[in-house]
């Protein structure tokens, strides 16, 4: 499954995490910059992407609607792109398990989980 990084995350994450999350995209890559969350949600459903975000709105939408798409909520506050990449890299086994779990809709990641 492809990860789709939300606008509130750096475009550089796609390159920095290409070794562990190949084929990842940023909303900018697919023309969704500045689009409402609903448009990003629909794109992720159509293209079988998991949304990676720091935005609580996607968490709420996921709790209300379930999957698809799957949502990965990175709860790290103000942090560097490197710190966010480190969390996603260190939690790779959890992300893999989450993506493979057919009933799972939401995964919360924090630096010290």
Protein described:
The chain is an alpha/beta fold and 113 residues long. The protein has one domain. 40% of the residues lie in helices and 17% in strands. It is built from five helices and five strands. Strands 2-1-3-4-5 form a five-stranded parallel sheet, sandwiched between helices. Strand 1, helix 1 and strand 2 form a beta-alpha-beta unit. The longest helix is centred in the middle third of the chain and has 11 residues. The radius of gyration is 13 Å and the shape is globular. The two termini are 23 Å apart.
Keywords:
single chain; 5 helices; five-stranded parallel β-sheet; 17% strand; alpha/beta; 5 strands; 113 residues
Round the Cα radius of gyration to an integer and report it: 13 Å
**Widest sheet, order of strands:** 2-1-3-4-5
Biggest sheet character: 5 strands, parallel
Binned, the helix content reads 25-40%
One letter per element, helices H and strands E, the order comes to EHEHEHEHHE
Low-confidence stretches: none
Q: Which geometry do the CA atoms define? A: globular
| Residue fraction in strands | 15-25%
Structural class: alpha/beta
**Structural domains: how many:** 1
Oligomer: single chain
In brief:
The chain is built from five helices and five strands; from the N terminus they run βαβαβαβααβ. With 113 residues, it is an alpha/beta fold. The two termini are 23 Å apart.
Please specify the SSE layout and strand pairing:
Blueprint: E1 2-5, H1 12-16, E2 25-26, H2 37-47, E3 49-53, H3 56-65, E4 71-74, H4 81-90, H5 92-100, E5 106-109
Parallel strand pairs: 1-2, 1-3, 3-4, 4-5
